[in-house]
Design brief:
two-stranded antiparallel ribbon; seven-stranded mixed sheet; 52% helix; Beta Polymerase, domain 2
Length: 386
């Protein structure tokens, strides 16, 4: 039995990045032997085991054979005869197809180090086109390593386009699409992820909501998402801005944009397992957009309506997340003063002695009126300040 460090840990070591987790490839063993050594079986589709002490993943070397469309359409061979080279050959990109042996020697049969030096994301073999998830993964790595200067190799881009054109992406389950999308939204340069998918024709395959008119080929630039890329690592905020960029490409009318934004969000929610937090922040984001764009002429009642509709007094942290995004996007610093005022308004309103009002008044309607009146007073006081 031979054990090799493989995958992301090897790649990140040579990229000079922190190693988050280690994956190991086991050659010349069997599930029975692994269990005898105290390894815990956790793999569903193929034999993967947890080390009894480190809990790191150890997978038996395997080959894959495509037998039907989609991500799960594979037959696996994990016999003892499978070699390390065969296991590495089934991997997506050359930079992920390197291994290190027990003597710390690099094993690089598919020239991953050359591609690291040339900063290219290149497929390992023709088998790349057998797994549609690799289109998403390549886009994800393009975004992750964008600041290191990496780009997708031209030949790999052609294969990605072929996968998109052949309809293989249509077989991906929504959970997997969202998983890769969420990871991209959580990292650096999410706009690169979406642009990479767009460039190979995969974006409208994966997100048909974007293809509202097949005769009108809209080129999405994701400029707003690019603006915030190096400042916000909140995936829910980035998701909101992603939808905003989509809708801004379709119309310059703010009212129409707000309506279309909500329609697209609702469509995404029906088809993808989008967390509730993402949907809530997105709804707040677009409500704020039209109002905060008019910040210089904002009236007291408009501010109160925005804050109450957004539940900003009870869920202040959530609202401040959106406000922070707007602060970052305000590159010309036109509205910074208003953002600070709104933050102070929320703080002041949350210090209202509501218990005293409740004790002094028994009528629920009048309680609400008195609280609203006090909020309006505080808002008026803040917006009158320079």
């Amino acid at each position: 039995m031979e054990v090799y460090l493989v995958g992301g840990a090897v790649r990140d070591r040579f990229l000079g990045l922190p190693i988050v987790e280690k994956d190991w490839c086991v050659v010349g063993s069997s599930p029975e032997e692994m269990k005898k050594r105290g390894f815990q079986s956790v793999g569903k589709d193929f034999p993967v085991f947890l080390h009894p002490e480190t809990k790191e993943e150890y997978a038996l070397a395997r080959t894959e054979k495509k037998i039907k469309p989609g991500y799960h359409g594979f037959d696996f061979n994990t016999s003892k005869n499978v070699t390390l080279f065969e296991d590495l050959k089934r991997r997506d990109l050359s930079i992920n197809a390197m291994a290190i042996d027990k003597n710390d020697n690099l094993i690089d049969p598919y020239n991953g180090m050359d591609d690291i030096n040339q900063k290219k994301l290149r497929h390992v073999s023709k088998a790349f086109d057998e797994d549609p998830v690799r289109v998403l993964r390549t886009a994800k790595f393009a975004a992750r390593f964008h600041q290191l200067g990496f780009s997708v190799h031209a030949d790999t881009q052609k294969i990605m386009k072929s996968i998109s054109d052949d309809g293989e992406l249509d077989h991906l389950v929504s959970d997997r699409v969202w998983k890769e999308m969420e990871q991209a939204l959580s990292g650096n340069d999410p706009h690169v992820f979406f642009n990479t998918l767009q460039n190979c024709g995969a974006l409208i395959r994966l997100l048909p909501e974007l293809n509202i008119n097949k005769d009108a080929k809209i080129k999405y630039s994701f400029t707003t998402l690019k603006k915030i890329a190096n400042h916000s690592y909140n995936p829910a905020v980035n998701f909101s801005i992603f939808i905003y960029d989509i809708e801004r490409a379709k119309t310059s009318d703010n009212d129409e944009l707000q309506i279309n934004f909500q329609k697209t969000l609702d469509s995404f929610k029906e088809r993808l397992p989008i967390p509730r937090r993402f949907a809530e922040i997105s709804s707040i984001f677009i409500k704020c957009k039209n109002i905060l764009d008019q910040s210089e002429s904002l009236e007291t009642n408009s501010i109160l309506e925005l804050l109450e509709d957004s539940d900003a007094f009870r869920r202040t942290e959530r609202f401040n997340t959106v406000l922070e995004a707007y602060s970052i996007l305000d590159t010309e610093k036109k509205n910074q003063n208003m953002f600070k005022k709104i933050a102070r308004i929320i703080l002041a309103c949350n210090n209202i002695q509501t218990k005293k009002i409740i004790n002094d008044e028994t009528n629920p309607k009048k309680i609400r009126e008195k609280i609203s009146q006090e909020r309006i007073r505080l808002i008026s006081r803040e917006i009158s300040k320079k």
